[in-house]
Structures are given as C-alpha cells and as structure tokens.
Amino acid sequence: MATDETRLLMLIDDEPAQSRFVSALAAREGWRTLVVASGEEALAKLAAPDGADVHAVLLDQRVPGEDACELIREIRTARPDVPLLMLTASTSPLLAVEAMRSGATDYLIKPVAPDRLLAALRSATRAEAPRDELQPMTEKLPTVLDFDAMVGTAPPFRTALAKAATAARGHGHLLVEGESGTGKEMLLRAMHAASTRAKAPMKLVACGALPATSLESLLFGHEKGAFAGAFDRQTGLFEYCDGGTLLLDDVDRMDLSLQERLADVIESGIVRPTGATHGFRIDVRIFASSDLPVEELVAAGEFSERLFTALSATRIHMPALRDRLGDIPALTRYFLAKIGEQPGLFHHSIADSGLTLLEAYDWPGNVRQLQAVLFRASVFEQREALTAHSFPQLSQLLGDSPDRGESRARGLGVLLYTDDGNLRALEDIEADIIRLAIGHYRGRMTEVARRLGIGRSTLYRKLSELGIDNVA
C-alpha cells in the first residue's frame, strides 16, 4: 500500500520480465520501484533533485557487464549512504569480493529466491545500522557435502550428527528441525551423500521460495492442458527422483493443501501429476527440514498431522549457535581456511580480541551468520590476523570491551596474538603453555614435564627463566 512513507527502490535492469517480477515482489513490502535501463541513466537520476528519494539500489550485473564494479563505485560516490545490492548469474567468489570492495552492500546470485531478495532489502534498509552488515552470504562459498565439514564438539551438536549419520544409512523419511542458519540444508546434503542412494537422483526444493501453484507443479508435475498456461507436460520432481532422494527445505512453509497431498504420496507410494487420470508408483526418500518445531505447528493446526507422522520417525534437532558457543573458535578457523581458498582472498588467522568479540555475540542468524561476518571481514581486512577492529559492526553492537573471562573459560587458553594483530613473543606463548599445563595437571610437575615432552629438570629451568612461580 503506497503511503508518504513508501520507500523507493531503483532497479538498474534492461530485462522487462525480471523488472516486472522484482517490482511486484518489492511492492509486497511497500516499495515503489524506479526502473532504469543503464548505469548512465541511474547516475543521472541519482544526481537529480528527486534522487534523494531513492532508499536502495538493485543492480543487475549483466547491464554494465565487466564495468559493474566501476558503476558501483560511481553510485557509492554519488550516494555513499544508499544500500546497493548486486544481482548476478555468476557464482564467482572473486566477483563477490570485487563488488563488496567497490561498495556493494550485498550480492545475490540468480535465480534468487523471493524471500532471499526481500530479506536482503529488509536487512540493507533497517534502522539498526550495525546489523546492516550481518547478512547471509553463504552462497558465495561452495557447499561441502560430507559430515567432515560439520565442525563442532558441543554435546547437542555431536548428538545431532551421530543421529544423522545413523539415519543416513537407513531407508526411512526424516525431519531436521532447528533455527534458520544452523546448518540444516548442509546436514540434509551430507546425509544424502552418506546414504545408500548417494549416486541416485537428488533434488533440493526451497518450499518457502515458491507460490503454492508453482511448488505443486514442481513436485508432482502436470499434464498438458491441466490448467490455463499448462502448454506442455511437466515432469515432477517425484518422478525425476524415483529411486533417489528429495530434500524439502522449509517444509513448514508449504501450503497445508500441498502438505496433505504430499502425505498421500508418502502413504501410498503413488504420485499422480495434476490433470492426469492415473498415477504411477515411485520410490523416493524424503529428507525435510523446518525452522520451527513441527509438533507445535501440528498442535496449532498449522501443519498436517499426517505429514508430520510420515516424516517424524526420525527427528533431528540442530542446536542454535548460542547453545554451542564453545564451537566458535573451531568454526571460525574452519571458515577462515575455506574463505582463504577463494580467489581474491588470502588466509587470515584470528587474534584473541577478534575471537573474544565473536564469542560475546549471541548470533541470531547462527552458523550461517558467523560465516557471513567472517567473509565480510576477510574481504576488507588487509592484515594477516582478524582483530576486534575487523568487526566494526559487532564492536558497535557489543561495546569496545566484551568480557574475556568467558572466552578463556571455554578453552581459548593460549593467546597467539596481541590486540593489534601482531604475534606475541615466543617466550610469552611458552610461558602461557607451561602455566596452562600446570593448571591442567594440578601442579603434578612430573606429569606436566611428560606431557610437554621435556625433562623435569628442563621444566624447572624454564620456570626460572620465564619467571613463573614454582607451584610444585
């Protein structure tokens, strides 16, 4: 509904169909859309008196092509405050890095899901500026499909992985629950890769990204002439994945009528395309995920009880990152190693001040958000180690001096870097290791020396040289 408060989105795109799609989508959230067909026209509009009314810019990278980053810099110069999102068909992390360094706020890969685009617009324009930078950008990095990529030692997380690994080798359907960003999709893919159907067809469907009618045709297929616009027969994913696995992400966002139809297929093993007179038998294993506790949705009448029964023989809960904060150091180092492998980036380490800051945040976006924040910090940090200064948005949210005591209690132990990102002196690190060992083995110096791989006399000499109190 248009009001005086309606925000104006400038869309730089010369493709009419996509312009209509984006405009209609943005209108759902109260945006008016100004479509321009070239970078030159966009810059002219921004320089005009009414250019100040533009609240966000969405640029299709195809329009300026190789000059996209130059256009981003020009727009950023003209309007340093306006959020700028780039839409592209390229999956190159190098392009993401260049676009962000040029001034892009976010980077969306086509085909972009409607909810992802709307989420990016919301995040880029919300009032709380520090959170503007904490956006999901996991599509910039390749997805690893095995359990080895699931990093963490927290008991609830290891329990979930153990249950998933066992279930993967079975034959039944299953349901993975957990907040957005906890790694449900990654777990679904890892389970398929570890299953007996790993070499059979597999498709992942984002149930929340499609209208009900489109999702219905995608899953079940339709016959030619089944409805207005059905000019050809469409093979559904149940038919395509026969003998394989269908991954249903965000199944809780599926329309109730489709949930009931899905329950029919699971119970009977027969799928009938829309408009078909007869169905056919299929053998498809379903791995589903939900951001919300499905049992509660069933109780509220918002989810099919039959579908829940069909999927819930095995239920796996992925814990939120705030419930496994002790995994942040290992996750951070894992993500930094993966980010460092991408073109245009190099491998960063993490200083104590940076890690302390990460551990002090509650991560409402969970592991996906942690990865996004590390990716953004790696893009802009020129020093070898990420420090607290590498995360200005988190620093602004949390203040300049989050408590370090909790980080140490979670096992950070020996600090390798000073707050400015430089390595500490070797003797200082050695002294910390010895102190840590003495505390860990409760002053049993013979055991300390044995675990450190040195003689007892050498240990006492080092205590003296390093000025460590003799606590034996």
TrEMBL record:
Residue ranges of domain Response regulatory in the record: 8-125
SUPFAM superfamilies recorded: CheY-like (SSF52172), Homeodomain-like (SSF46689), P-loop containing nucleoside triphosphate hydrolases (SSF52540)
Classification via InterPro entries: AAA+_ATPase, AAA_lid_NorR, CheY-like_superfamily, Homeodomain-like_sf, HTH_Fis, P-loop_NTPase, Sig_transdc_resp-reg_receiver, Sigma_54_int
Modified residues (4-aspartylphosphate): 60
Protein name: DNA-binding transcriptional regulator NtrC
Main subcellular location of this protein, as a coarse class: cytoplasm
Localisation per UniProt entry: Cytoplasm
Matching PANTHER family: DNA-BINDING TRANSCRIPTIONAL REGULATOR NTRC (PTHR32071:SF95), TRANSCRIPTIONAL REGULATORY PROTEIN (PTHR32071)
Signal sequence, start to end: none
Domain of life: Bacteria
UniProt-listed Gene3D superfamilies: 1.10.8.60, 3.40.50.2300, Homeodomain-like, P-loop containing nucleotide triphosphate hydrolases
Protein's job: Member of the two-component regulatory system NtrB/NtrC, which controls expression of the nitrogen-regulated (ntr) genes in response to nitrogen limitation. Phosphorylated NtrC binds directly to DNA and stimulates the formation of open promoter-sigma54-RNA polymerase complexes.
Lineage of the organism: Bacteria, Pseudomonadati, Pseudomonadota, Alphaproteobacteria, Sphingomonadales
Record domain Sigma-54 factor interaction: where: 150-379
